[in-house]
Write a structure and sequence with these properties.
The protein is α+β, with helices and mostly antiparallel strands. It contains 14 helices and 20 strands. It comes from Cryobacterium cheniae.
Length: 489
C-alpha cells in the first residue's frame, strides 16, 4: 500500500492548478493524480465542453442583475474580475518560469461584448455601462447604440437587421479566449516532468478516513480491472460532476444537505472561413425568462489547437447524468436522507426552470436557428453543426428560509480537519481556478500557509489586496500580465 502526501482525484483544470501550486510551494511532497478516463481534460475542461470565456464579468450580464427598483450594482462583477486577475497573474508567472509554454497555445486576446435589443434591454445596458465605466478593472469599455459603430466591432450582428430595432452593445478589447483543455494538459505535463504520478483509466471506488487521519483510497484500473490501494495525508476531489458522490462516500458531515442538479447543453459551431473572418469577439446577450445563468446566449470566437471557429449557444437541456461519460442513474443515486428535503424544496421553487429545460430538450432545429438569428440575422443552419457541451451540476443545498436553494457558481467543501476537500458547481469555475485553489490551500493547510505566503505573493503579486481599490495598481497589473501573456492591454 503506497503512502503519499497528496492525492488529486480528476484530471481537470482544478486538480492541475492545485497540483501546480503545491509543487511550487512544497517541492518535496509526493503527489498522485488519478483520472478515470483515458486522457486528461475530457469533461468540463475540454475546450468543446465549455465556451472558453476568460470570465471576468466584462460581458456576462448575470453578474449584474437589475434590481426590482431598477438599480444596477457592480460589486459581484468586480469580485469576479478580481478573481480572474489572480488567474492571469499565476499564468503569467508560470509562463515566465517555463512551467507553461508560449501563451498563444492556451490564451488569446478576444474582445468581450454585450449585445441587447429592445427598449428595456437597451436602457438596462446603458445603466450597466454607466456603473462599470469608472471601475479600474473595466477601463476601456465602450458603449454604442449606433448600428454602424456596432457593425465595425463585429459585422455579423448588424447585417440585414431591421432598421427600426433598438440595439445597444458594449465592448472591451482586453477580453480573452482560453483553451482550458490545453492549459490543463500543459500543467499536468509539467507535473509529470517533476515526478508527479498522473494515472489514466484509474477510478476511485472507495474513500475512507483511517483512525490515524490518513485517507485510504481503493482504486480500480479500468483497463484490465486491476485493484490497488493508496493512502494519502490530503485528498482533493476535483472530479467535476463526479465530486458529489465521492464526497458523500467520504462520510464527512460537511457534505450533508448538498445535492446536485445536472444541466446539459449544446452549441452550434461553424468553421466557415467567411463567417469566422467577420466575427472576432465573445458576445453575450440576455438570458431567456426562466433560463439558468449558464444558459445566457453568446456568440464566441474560439481558438482551439490553432484553428479559429465560432460557437453559439448554449441550448440548455436536462439529463440525470452528472458527467458526459457517466451513468443515467447519477441523480437518483445521489439522493440521501439528509439532502432529499433541500432537493424537493428546490424542485418546488424552480418550476419555471424545469419548464424551460424541458422546452429546450424538445426544441426543433428551426427554434435553434431562430435563437442564432437573434445574433446573426443572416444565419443559415447549413453553415453550423450541433455539438454537445459538458454537463454542469449545479449545487443544491439547505436554506433556513426556503428549505433548499439552487446555487449557481462554485462551492468548496472542506472537512473540519482539512484533510479532504472537494469542489462542487460550475461557472465561472475554470476561469477562477487559481483563486479557488489559493483559498483552499489557506483553509486546508493553515500550519504551512505562513511559510508559503511569500512564494504565493511572488506568483500572484496582488494576493490579499483589491486591485479595484487602486486604479494605478490595477492598470499596472493588467499591463504586466498582458505583456507576458501576449494579450491586448
Amino acid at each position: 500500500m503506497a503512502n503519499v502526501d497528496v492525492v488529486l482525484i480528476g484530471g481537470g483544470i482544478m486538480s492541475a492548478t492545485l497540483g501546480t501550486l503545491i509543487k511550487q510551494l512544497q517541492p518535496d511532497w509526493t503527489i498522485e493524480v488519478y483520472e478515470r478516463l483515458g486522457e486528461v481534460a475530457q469533461e468540463s475542461s475540454n475546450p468543446w465542453n465549455n465556451a472558453g470565456t476568460g470570465h471576468a464579468a466584462l460581458c456576462e450580464l448575470n453578474y449584474m442583475p437589475e434590481a426590482k427598483d431598477g438599480t444596477v450594482t457592480a460589486a459581484k462583477a468586480v469580485a469576479i474580475n478580481e478573481q480572474f486577475q489572480i488567474s492571469r497573474q499565476l499564468w503569467a508567472h508560470l509562463v515566465e518560469t517555463g512551467v507553461l509554454p508560449a501563451p498563444t497555445k492556451f490564451i488569446n486576446s478576444t474582445p468581450h461584448m454585450t449585445f441587447v435589443h429592445g427598449q428595456s434591454s437597451v436602457e438596462y445596458l446603458r445603466k450597466r455601462f454607466a456603473v462599470l465605466k469608472g471601475e479600474p478593472l473595466f477601463q476601456g469599455m465602450e458603449y454604442s447604440e449606433d448600428p454602424a459603430v456596432i457593425g465595425t466591432w463585429t459585422p455579423l450582428l448588424t447585417q440585414k437587421r431591421p432598421k427600426n430595432q433598438k440595439i445597444a452593445a458594449t465592448r472591451i478589447v482586453s477580453g480573452t479566449d482560453v483553451d482550458f483543455g490545453a492549459l490543463t494538459r500543459y500543467l499536468l505535463d509539467n507535473l509529470k516532468a517533476e515526478g508527479v504520478g498522473v494515472h489514466m483509466n484509474q477510478q476511485v471506488t472507495g474513500l475512507k478516513q483511517l483512525t490515524d487521519g490518513m485517507w485510504k483510497l481503493n482504486l480500480r484500473r479500468l483497463v484490465g480491472n486491476h485493484p490497488s490501494i493508496v493512502k494519502a495525508r490530503f485528498v482533493f476531489v476535483g472530479a467535476g460532476g463526479g465530486a458529489l458522490a465521492l464526497l458523500q462516500q467520504s462520510g464527512i458531515p460537511e457534505i450533508e444537505g448538498f445535492g446536485g442538479f445536472p444541466i446539459s447543453g449544446q452549441f452550434l459551431r461553424t468553421t466557415n472561413p467567411k463567417l469566422v473572418a467577420q466575427h472576432h469577439a465573445k458576445v453575450y446577450g440576455k438570458a431567456a425568462t426562466g433560463a439558468p445563468p449558464m444558459s445566457v446566449p453568446h456568440l464566441d470566437t474560439r481558438v482551439v489547437e490553432g484553428e479559429t471557429s465560432l460557437l453559439f449557444g448554449p441550448y440548455a437541456g436536462f439529463t440525470p447524468k452528472f458527467l458526459k461519460s457517466s451513468s443515467w442513474l447519477d441523480l437518483p443515486f445521489s439522493i440521501r436522507a439528509h439532502n432529499i428535503g433541500p432537493m424537493l424544496s428546490v424542485a418546488a421553487h424552480n418550476f419555471g426552470l424545469m419548464k424551460y429545460l424541458i422546452g429546450e430538450v424538445f426544441a426543433s432545429k428551426k427554434t435553434k436557428l431562430k435563437a442564432l438569428q437573434e445574433f446573426i440575422p443572416t444565419a443559415k443552419i447549413e453553415d453550423w453543426e450541433l455539438i454537445t457541451a459538458g454537463q454542469r451540476v449545479q449545487v443544491m443545498k439547505k436554506d433556513p428560509e426556503q428549505g433548499g436553494v439552487l446555487q449557481f457558481g462554485t462551492e468548496v467543501i472542506t472537512s473540519a480537519d482539512g484533510t479532504i476537500a472537494g469542489l462542487l458547481g460550475a461557472s465561472p469555475g475554470a476561469s477562477t481556478a487559481a483563486p479557488i485553489m489559493v483559498d483552499l490551500i489557506q483553509r486546508c493547510f493553515p500550519e504551512q500557509y505562513p511559510a508559503w505566503e511569500p512564494k504565493l505573493r511572488e506568483m500572484i503579486p496582488s494576493l490579499g489586496t483589491k486591485l479595484s481599490d487602486d486604479p494605478a495598481a490595477a492598470a499596472a497589473s493588467l499591463a504586466a500580465t498582458a505583456a507576458v501573456l501576449n494579450l491586448t492591454a
